[in-house]
Design brief:
Helix content of chain A: over 70%
Largest sheet of chain A: none
Number of strands of chain B: 4
Number of strands of chain A: 0
Strand content of chain A: under 5%
Low-confidence stretches of chain A: none
Number of helices of chain B: 2
Order of helices and strands of chain A: HHH
Order of helices and strands of chain B: HEEEEH
Distance between the termini of chain B: 20 Å
Oligomer: heterodimer
Mean pLDDT of chain A: 77
Shape of chain B: elongated
Helix content of chain B: 40-55%
Amino acid sequence: MNIKQLDALSAYSQATKQATDGIASRDGGKDGESAFSALVNDSLGSVANATSNVELQSAKALVGQADLVDVATAVQNAEMVVQTVVTVRDKVVAAYNDILKMPI
Amino acid sequence: MDLQKAMMASASGLRAQSIRMRVISENIANQNSVASEPGADPYRRKIVTFATELDRASGVNKVKASGVDEDQKEFGKKYDPGNPAADPSGYIKTSNVNGMIELMDMRQAQRTYQSNLNALEASRRMATMTLDLLR
């Protein structure tokens, strides 16, 4: 009983290792970083940039240094970036779920 | 990305019109400003001029309030012998601001601002509609 569980455990760890190696080499990523994770990093970076710009502009507006137009355009830009990233993420997650539910 | 550039151009229009509105407000506020001593000039009306400006990074032709100049029209004259700024014959110089002209300028600034806002809104709606395609 005990030995069988251990067997299963080692088989599982081997399988996950193979899977991650395989994905990384197929994506052409380096140092275990896949192209997909690079894409996620890039888009999250642009979201962070846009939202930090919004914070900067609204803080300036609060002390009366920024134009109302600057604040409005910064907010609008951040809204567009966030919307785009969220939509693409939803789409990717939906595709992943579809593959996961595929009958084998 | 062109929609984003369109929004940048609209935003520059909004900025330019707000500068114009500021100058018009200054003119209206100083409509009755006279000189403080004899021989001195009263408030001179100010005019904003717009110029197109190429943003080289994005290739967008933005608009810019290129300068605030003074209206060279001559001052008005009013008979007011009790005023400390009156000349020996009892006249004082009044500012060359005409309320009606300022009113029309203000209306035009307002409408242009509105047009820019509408263009901005349309660009945003187009971008959102495109994004809805993915949903």
